[in-house]
Amino acid sequence: MGYAEVLAVAALFRGARPEEFAELERFCRRRHFEHANYLWHAGDAADAMFVIVSGEVVLSRLGPDGEEFMVEAYHEGDACGQLPFFDLVPVRVVDARAGTALDVVEIPREALITHLRAHPGLMMRMLGVYSRWIRQRDLNASELAFQHLAGKIACKLLDLSETYGQRCDDGLLIRRHFAQHELAAMVGASRESVNRALQRLLNNGDVIRRAGELVIPDVDKLRLRYAWSAPAEWELSRSVDRPTRSSTAG
Fold first, then answer.
1. For residues 90 and 44, is the Cβ–Cβ distance under 8 A?
2. For position 140, what pLDDT does the model report?
3. In this structure, what is the dihedral angle of CA atoms 73, 136, 208, 164, given to the nearest 10 degrees?
4. Phi/psi at 21 (nearest 5 deg)?
5. For residue 28, what pLDDT is reported?
6. Which residues contact 213 (CB under 8 A, 6 or more apart)?
7. What value does the CA radius of gyration of the chain take, rounded to a whole number of Å?
């Protein structure tokens, strides 16, 4: 698959045609990162974006105690690193590392911005992605604001299931293993508190632990029990393509 085809199917430009990127192809390059290698560090200049061909990119920050806080993860078809392009000071605010062996297409900031100015239709596609992402983030934040810890974890697992969920005999398997300190960082709680809250979900049968991974037996039931949002808002959430995560921090 050529660079234009990779960009055309990226979530950030969903619906675009390969020919719309013909002039940009000469600025693109393919890059490979081994597991745990960094694409960038916080404080680096935001001078390139990346479209993932295969593998996983993990965005994270270090807390005051040196513990890593996982901000987001990206997979095949996602774009990352482009949001700071439009800031007055385009600087990275998080670290980005390869969560697995990783292949990406790298596009320089100046080349992309020049291309977007010449192709306003592509810019409108990006703005649509950003708009849907902001609405989804607002919806998620409002849910968490009204939840006790078990509910916050349930909602976070529902969110993670959109990215990592895989149908299995028992329900929906969250394919990636998340350590308790990662879940704790995501919901802003201690590992001990998360352990107790997660055990409550397990005891209630809301989630099942299977070989170190978590399974949600009934996604709709879990959402009904713990999600604060109205059903109409769930439908809005489901109507948003999951790859709009490509608009998050970088």
1. no
2. 64
3. -30
4. -115, 10
5. 98
6. 173, 174, 175, 176, 177
7. 19
- Who has greater pLDDT, 136 or 116? 116
Mean pLDDT in residue range 83-108: 95
Please identify which residue in the block is written with the tokens 């993670």.
160
Q: What are the C-alpha distances in Å from 133 to residues 8, 138, 155, 202, 241? A: 19, 9, 17, 30, 9
* Residue 117 to residue 215: CA distance in whole angstroms: 45
- Give the chain as a 3 state SS string: CCHHHHHHHCHHHCCCCHHHHCCCHHHCEEEEECCCCEEECCCCECCEEEEEEECCEEEEEECCCCCEEEEEEECCCCEECCHHHHCCCCECCCEEEECCCEEEEEEEHHHHHHHHHHCHHHHHHHHHHHHHHHHHHHHHHHHHHCCCHHHHHHHHHHHHHHHHEEEECCEEEECCCCCHHHHHHHHCCCHHHHHHHHHHHHHHCCCEEECCEEEECCHHHHHHHHCCCCHHHHHHHHHCCHHHHHHCCC
What is the Cα 72 distance to its own chain's centre?
5
Task: Give pLDDT tens digits for 157-173.
Answer: 988 888 788 999 999 99
Check whether 147 has a pLDDT greater than 70: no
Structure tokens at 201: 């979900």
Q: What is the pTM of this model?
A: 0.72
More confident of the two residues 248 and 95: 95
Q: How many CB atoms lie within 10 A of CB 141?
A: 9
Spatial CA neighbour of 174 closest among 148, 200, 201: 201
